[in-house]
Amino acid sequence: MVFAYKKKNKIMKNTIAVLALSSLFAFTACNKTEKDTTNADKTETNQPEKFVIDSVKIEDSTKIADSLTAKFDSKLLVFPTIKDKALLDSIYFSIKDQKDYSKQGLQNFLQKDKTDYFNSIKNDSKDWISDITFSQVWYESAGMELISNKNDFLHIGYSWGSYSGGAHDNYGFSERVFDLKNNKKVQLTDITSMTKKQLESLLMKNINKANGGATDENGEVNNSEMLLVDVIPVTQNFYFDDKNLYFHYSPYEITAFAAGDITIPISWKDLAGTLKPQFKERMKIN
Q: Do the domains 54-186 and 189-283 sit in the same CATH topology, yes or no?
């Protein structure tokens, strides 16, 4: 009887030990599964890379002679999160032979551009610098500005200016809109199916609705009096917002220099029936 009791007690102890060990294994396995699931969830909920814009700029001047000073001023935007090479080439269309679009690469470009500009004036002015009879400041300036970034349409404004003697300086503008969804520059054909001739007619019709330009004695815009062309060409310097499509013209493109730069609006209403469905939906145009 004693032997049977001891044997039974031993079996019970072994059974309890086995159950305890099984519970430990089950808990460990469950805990590992929860950790693996948590890690998997973290991987699936990674946030997209934030769009980042930076810039580089150089401002400097040098004295060429007692009567002549040269100034250099240039700014470039930097887009570290844009990786598409073709899109970057289009954004930096005005920079010839530049392959490195990193912040340091663009800073190096500006430094070289400044040095080349100063050297060109020093070398070119050797024969006629003595003819300058009064103090002058010559300059070269260029810039990039972020105008807007809405609905994945990135609008960049480019500007340039220079003076190298004469009656007045020269300056101009370029407008470009980039489709960040499709990694390309926006073309007019992406916006409207309206023909070139029809657009030219609207531009002429809206010439006195332009921003900037000439005014008459009553203060009313009167750019039509300063036109240098019979037909206003459809420029590739265009951009848009919620209300209009805009065409931007630099001095001398369509009007006399005194009129300055001209921006002519064409409303979405004027383009009704010709807007591309995808563009219309993306811009939420009614």
A: no
The b-or-e profile of 155-171 (16+ CB within 10 A means b, else e) is: bbbbbbeebeeeeeeeb
Instruction: For residues 111 and 219, give the distance between their C-alpha atoms in angstroms, rounded to a whole number.
Output: 44
Q: What is the CATH number of domain 189-283?
A: 3.90.640.20
Q: Taking the mean position of all CA atoms in its chain, how far away is CA 247?
A: 18
Which residues have C-beta within 8 Å of that of residue 180, sequence separation ≥ 6? 51, 82, 149, 152, 153, 154
Q: Where does the pLDDT of residue 160 fall: very low under 50, low under 70, confident under 90, or very high at 90 and above?
A: very high
CATH 1.20.140.10, domain 54-186, yes or no: no
Token pair of 168 as six digits: 């007045």
- The pTM for the full model equals 0.79
Does residue 202 have a pLDDT over 70? Answer: yes
| DSSP 8-state secondary structure symbol assigned to residue 211 | B
- Predicted confidence (pLDDT) per residue in 207-227, tens digit: 988 876 666 666 666 777 789
CB 254 within 8 Å of CB 264: no
Reply yes or no on whether the pLDDT at 91 is more than 90: yes
Cα separation values, 107 from 55, 84, 98, 117, 223, Å: 9, 20, 11, 15, 40
Going from N- to C-terminal start, the domains of the chain cover: 1-46, 54-186, 189-283
Q: Is 240 helix (H, G, I), strand (E, B) or coil?
A: strand
